[in-house]
Amino acid sequence: MTAYTPQATGSGPKAAVQRFGSHLAGMVMPNIGAFIAWGLITALFIETGWTPVAEIGGFDGHEGLVGPMIRFLLPLLIGYTGGRMVHGVRGGVVGAIATTGVIVGAGDTPMFLGAMIIAPLTAWLMKKVDEAVAGKVKTGFEMLIDNFSAGILGGALAVAGYYTVGPVIRSLMEWAATVVEFLVDNTLLPLASVFVEPAKVLFLNNAINHGVFTPLGAAESAADGKSILFMIETNPGPGLGILLAFMFFGPLAVRASTPASVVIHFFGGIHEIYFPYVLMKPWLILAAIAGGATGVLTNVVLGNGLVASPAPGSIFAYMAMTPAGDHLKVLLSILLATVVSFVVASAMLGFGRSARREAEPSVDPESESVPTQA
Hints:
Blueprint: H1 13-28, H2 32-45, H3 54-57, H4 66-105, H5 112-133, H6 142-163, H7 165-185, H8 192-224, H9 237-249, H10 252-255, H11 258-266, H12 275-280, H13 285-302, H14 315-320, H15 327-348, H16 353-359
């Protein structure tokens, strides 16, 4: 396990969730630099970015850097890291091979979750194969057997991932979109956060926003001049609250990268930057849900809405899409979502108590002097 994620000890449901979160974080957090690089490129160079450049941003039908980075580079890095955690560099290689099959099988959906599933599995199988043939290969054939076994297993899992994991993730995305659409149709908007926020963390945010909320919101905006549906998935408040909680109370090794993530998330509008932080501590999804529901409820009570979907979802795009006279009300919804998310996330992080324990020097019990009675 990496230094980013101290391994949980003990037993029971809480410890199991902690270990699961540590495992996910071990795959994602070492690659945060790549997420930040992608976030900066996206915020700057996409068509609605600060300095749009087609060759880099990838709009007008040009691939650019943005699409290939989120579709290929980031999942492959996660796949390699996950495989390496299980079986060293050899596990990383076969994990990356298998991840490629999942990426292609999922179409345009970013396959972070798929990489987290198939890469450790492939590396574990590779480890078992290596253990099975250890000591049984004739001298001089070791490299041949090692290379061919890795190639065959990696290729087989890539094909299997293409036909299984990728389509399963696509089906999950379609199911989430159906649930959200049901809540919208039955005026249960605050409850939408129960499904939207977890789906966002699984990198289904664009599918839900552009596949469900944007079409429905566009029709409503054409009739009424604004729509609350544009504000359900795009509110930067829940993510901002979680990032601020990590900045002040998160693990010490993670705090240094958090300020840059705050800037990219809130001002650049690239919400994907905070998803790995939630994956590191999965129970923090409750903070995102609480913040998201608070924002939606505030918008319902105040009658807020945007004229179009803010893209990317930065505070600047939010203000640009806000009808005249509603800016303070919209800012209030973002502020309340941020505060609620921050408070819940900070409480779940123990207000920094665990980080302080990490910073305390460990004491070797054998080196401690034992007082004796005179």
